[in-house]
Each structure stands twice: as structure tokens, then as C-alpha cells.
Amino acid sequence: MKIKFFLIILSALAVFSIALFCGPKWISPMGLSDMDRQILLSIRLPRVVVSVLMGMALGASGAVLQGVLRNPLADPYILGISSGAALIAAAGIIFGVTIFGVFTIPVLAFAGAMVTGIFVGAMGWKRGGFWPDRLLLAGVGLGFLFSALLMLLMSVSSNEGLKRAILWIYGDLSITDWSIIPYGVIFIAVGLAIAFSRAKALNSLMLGDDLAHSLGFSPGKERFILFIAVSLMTAASVALGGMIGFIGLLIPHIGRFVVGSDSRVLIPASALGGGMLLCIADLIGKSIVSPMELPAGIITAILGAPYFLYLLRKRDVLSI
Fold it and tell me: What pLDDT, on the 0 to 100 scale, is given for residue 128?
């Protein structure tokens, strides 16, 4: 197991390095010119950092949610948090809101995500704890509502912000800079730390509430703590770069195939795997039709959907 995890770390470092130096223009790490150094530090490095942060947040959140909800098809967006963030952020883009300067869209997205998370949590709370079915149904219902409102907003809009909103929703990382990264690091690091600290409890939840009780865990309390972790990571991820699909759904299943179902290993493995997948998707998106760029969210869907169907055919992914 240690060897497998060490190989995952090495693979992640290799992917991150490739994403940094490859692209529409190859930059040799040997003998950097001033222009190459400027491209690396001002454009590519923040983009890779954001890709890693978002991928780690989504991968880890997927691993946690599939355990909390005991649903192999759960992902970070199933609770409607991302839809709430996308609705508020897209409204800000379309209507030209600039109240927070360069931080306007991230702040709006984060606020929308957190308000939605609080509402979903309130709907899923019953008898002193979260009920997985209530959380799931509340999230799905709100997700459909917010998606419909978002489509309504976009259908009646005709200004220049519409295209920008569409690109942002599908994970456009081309406007990434250093300014918002520290805030993303804080929220995602806190979420990851909470999730990893409750990994043993998550293992017990996957075995059923009765067994969790017998092992000394309170299912309602543990679901509440893990829900906070997922909400923080998902909100920060959407605020950093929009909505990226399939990472939270696909990566945990691959992680179980490689390292097993123990959440103490699966959560960090899923985080690293999510970072790798999003880096690869962003690299493909900015290189395949250069000088045009495809949003990373489109690439993850194109890559993820066929592979998930392959897993469904070859393995029993309908289990956690």
C-alpha cells in the first residue's frame, strides 16, 4: 500500500511538471529566457496551482460524499452547492457586477455555494443529525431549480457577459491569477484536514449507522462534520474556476481500484488523482485547438464519461 501511494505521489509530481512546461508553446526548464520565466510565473504556474487545488477538492469531496451518502454515484455537485454558486456568479458576470473588483466573481460564487450548503443542510437535518436520503433529495431538487433559473437567466441575456458566463460555468481557467489562490488554499486545506481527520468515522459510516454507533461514533455528528468539509471544498473549488464535472464521481472509483476503500488512504489518493486529472484536462484544453482554448470542464466530461462507462462494464462500481 505504501508503495502504491508513493507511486501516486510521483505520478502527480510528473503530471504537474508536464502541465507547467508543456502547452501551446513548449518551455524548456533549462536556460529560461526572461519571457519564458514571465510566462511560467505569471500564467502557467497559477493555472497549474488552481487546477491542482480544484482537482484535489473535487476528488476528495467525491470520496467523502460517496461514503457519507452510501451512494456510489454521489459527487460534489449532487448536493446542489455548485448550482447555487454558478447561478449567483453567472448573474454577477451577466449584469456586470464589480463591487469587489477582481474578487467579485469568486466572492459571489463562494457566497452562493455556502448559502446553498446551509439550506441543503437545514433540509437534510432531522432528529439531531443528517439523514443521507434527505440530504440527497434536497440537493438534487435545489440543483434542478438553480440550473433552471440559470438557463432562464442566460436565455434572456444578450450582453457580452453571456459568453464569459458560459465559459466560467464550464471551467475556464484562462483568467486565473495569483490574487485568489491564497483564499482557495485556506478553505480547501481546512476541508481536506477535516475530512482526513474523520476518515475512521467515514469508514464506520459506510458500514451502517448501527455499526458506527457500536464503534463509538455518532452518525449524525460525523455526517455534519463531513458535510462542512465537503461544502468548504466544493465552494472554494467553484469559486476558483467554475464547475468541473466527473472528477468527484470518477476519481474515487479509480482510487478504490488502486488503493482500496480505506478512507484514510482513499481521501488523499483521490485528492492527488483529482489534481492530476484536472491538470491533464486543462493542458489538453489549451493545446488541442491553440490559440483557442476549450474549458477544462468540457475535457473532463469527454475523458471521464467513456472511462466511467468502461469501469461500469468491467467492474462493479455500484458499490463502495
Answer: 67
Quick check: 285 and 296 in contact, CB under 8 A?
A: yes
Q: Which residues pair with 129 in a beta bridge?
A: 126
Which grid cell is 310? 468502461
**185 in Cβ contact with 57 (< 8 Å):** no
Gap between the Cα atoms of 113 and 115, Å rounded:
6
Rounded Cα–Cα distance for residues 68 and 207 (Å): 10
CB of 232 within 8 A of CB of 191?
Answer: yes
**Structural domain boundaries of the chain?**
51-314
Low-confidence ranges of the chain (pLDDT < 50): none
Is this model's pTM higher than 0.85 or not? yes
Cell of 79: 448536493
The answer to whether residues 43 and 24 touch, using CB atoms and an 8 Å cutoff, is no
- Give the CATH number of domain 51-314: 1.10.3470.10
DSSP SS3 for 126: strand
H or E stretch covering 129: strand 129-130
Q: Could you tell me which residues are beta bridge partners of residue 130? A: 125
The pLDDT, as a whole number, for residue 320 is 64
Q: Which three cell numbers stand for residue 266?
A: 482513499
